[in-house]
Design brief:
70 residues; 51% helix; mainly alpha
Length: 70
């Protein structure tokens, strides 16, 4: 029997959330917008965690590609 991972509470609204941090919205502002504009009751804590992960994934410096010339 294979165990499946539970579906994230963010997964169903991820497409709605993803553009909002690019607008400079804070996690709580994103949460409020999702509720107000889409009438979706999403818990705040997973929204904050997702927004933090989103920012961290974009703030990491990309590895520089160095060409080694003999």
């Amino acid at each position: 029997m294979t165990r499946r991972r539970p579906l994230s509470v963010i997964a169903p609204v991820k497409k709605l959330i993803d553009p909002l941090p690019e607008e400079g919205l804070a996690p709580k502002e994103i949460w409020i917008r999702i509720i107000d504009e889409h009438d979706i009751a999403a818990p705040l804590t997973p929204m904050i965690n997702y927004a933090k992960e989103w920012h961290l994934s974009r703030e990491r410096p990309q590895a520089a590609v160095h060409s080694h010339q003999p």
